[in-house]
Amino acid sequence: QVQLVGSGGGLVQAGGSLRLSCAASGRTFNGYAMGWFRQAPGKEREFVAGISGSGAYTWYTDSVKGRFTISRDNSKNTVYLQMDSVKPEDTAVYYCYGDQESTRYWGQGTQVTVSS
After folding, report:
1. 105 forms bridges with which residues in the sheet?
2. Which position among 52, 66, 78, 100 has the lowest Cβ density within 10 Å, counted as fewest Cβ atoms?
């Protein structure tokens, strides 16, 4: 059974930092893309950041470029999202994902709340 468990969310002040983690189990994601989406109250889920299987390539939505950094540790089957200079509009539930062939696996979500 494949599981992705996200953690690291919480309450942070605007301008602060937070680091999210997502640990996968049940299947190795080494060599497969992983990333993060988020969903704010009343809004659709939106893409935040992705990383290639080797970690050599990363991509971000424009609103987080220069502030968020995605990385991965394939030895730990884990993907990270370093969030710096956070803004109130970053408040959302953050979901990690991992792609395997034609299947996308999702984590359970971790709440990030940014106070102004």
Report:
1. 98
2. 66
11-24: pLDDT as tens digits: 999 999 999 999 99
Residue closest to 105 by CA, chosen among 113, 93, 96? 96
Angle at alpha carbon of residue 96, lines to 91 and 100, rounded to 5°: 160
Question: If you search the block for the tokens 């390539």, which residue do you land on?
Answer: 57
Residues 19, 12: Cα–Cα separation, whole Å = 11
Across residues 37-47, what is the average pLDDT?
Answer: 97
| Closest of 100, 116, 99, 97 to residue 20, by C-alpha | 97
DSSP structure string for the chain: --EEEEE--EEEETT--EEEEEEEESS--TTS-EEEEEE-TTS--EEEEEE-TTSS-EEE-GGGTTTEEEEEETTTTEEEEEE-S--GGG-EEEEEEEEETTEEEE---EEEEEE-
Q: Encode pLDDT of 48-58 as tens digits.
A: 999 999 999 99
